[in-house]
Predict the 3D structure of the following.
Amino acid sequence: MSDSLHEACGVFGVFNNSDAARLTYLGLYALQHRGQESSGIVTSNTKCLQMFKAMGLVNQVFTAENLQAIAGMHAIGHNRYSTTGSSTVTNAQPILINCRFGQIAGAHNGNLTNAAALRTWMEQDGSIFTTSTDTEVIMHLIARSKRENAEAMILDALSGVKGAYSIVFLTPDALYGARDPYGFRPLLLGQLGSNFVLSSETCAFDLVGAKLVREIRPGEMVRIDKNGVDSFAIPNYESSVHCSQCVFEFIYFSRPDSYVFGENVDKVRRKLGRILAREHPAAGADFVMGVPDSSTTAALGYSQESELRYDIGLIRNHYVGRTFINPRQSGRDFGVRVKFNPVKGVLRGKKVVVVDDSIVRGTTMKKIIQLIKSAEPKEIHLRISSPPIMWPCYYGIDMPTKEELIASAQEIDAVRKYMEVDTLGYLSIDGLLSAMPGEKSNFCVACFRGDYPVPVKGNNNPPSC
Ligand code: SF4
């Protein structure tokens, strides 16, 4: 990923383990790629809930001491990515409330399309909000529900929201996980010993030693308590609802070692590279390289299909923080340079195929191409393992406006000229869908086609989770 497209959050939950806080910390560690702004854990000691959350990466937020201070038997955790304006600890999750039922905490991955309208309605009715998150809207709906117990109150709340949510809740004696009826974001159930865990991706199960049981189904809520796992259907959804899993989980967001939406991410991402090679060959090129790390797998697929060797033309510095400080008087933009360095001995004089997973605004991609050019390759053939992004996402991915998306504003050849590359090829939408597992119509491709599965007319971009 060479541009600013960001996932909005990863969630994890564990039930009935005396090391629940530490296991959740590990789960969040594995899910760090889904959000790097803040991290939080709520635990239950079976009588009450306790919370610790702060800005920063998981290993910056949690210490042995603060994890010990919230030790408990059950836990949920959350990693958050947010847009700059709402990047405050107030918006960090989980959100913990006290309501008529007692304590309940929630942590959410996704964006609701009716959050702004619900918030306005509740504010006019006297509700006070302390965050700008969609999650707080759900927590308010739970608190306002007149139903008789926690699961009925949660189901009542979820039946009133629209859009994307994979969400976990914790009460003192139960863990809940729910996935919206469209199934935009993944959520999986795992087993650790005789007890259960929930996660946005299976890479977190691998780290804590849990086994995958199954995915939470679109429109399903599970309750995990001392009696095991119970399943409920989220009520009141129109019959027109159609499964719309986000293809970007396979293109970029999920880790290649995860299993989501019924398939291993690595397998699908490699397929994307293979199909890209068939659709846009680069005859006569010397080798294929990826923009590390997210494009490496697709680049390997391209290499295998085209029988061009794979090589490493860019080295990524993994230790660049979000607060990198530019030297005052250098006059150079270090943003990309500090993250990547070209391998001159590999690139000089060669015809190179550069594979990246997507282009958003195009500004970062252009800088990467300039960086590669500084190593004096003979030709650059840019290949993108997704179709041109033409429309913004309203379901949990932070994207710029339609006007800012380079493929929306310009024809492909104009993009090629702007990038200053010899050739440019994007994967087709048909090619993308042919790599998806199972029924192809079960995937959302709205950012390529503009056919939004949940109507977004009048949507004013409510803040992400
Ligand atoms: S619009 Fe694009 S990024 Fe958003 S859910 Fe659909 S496929 Fe994923």
Remarks:
- The pocket of iron/sulfur cluster is lined by residues 184, 246-248, 393, 395, 397, 444-447 (CB under 6 Å).
- Residues 264-436 form a domain with the Rossmann fold fold (CATH 3.40.50.2020).
- Residues 22 and 143 are 29 Å apart (CA to CA).
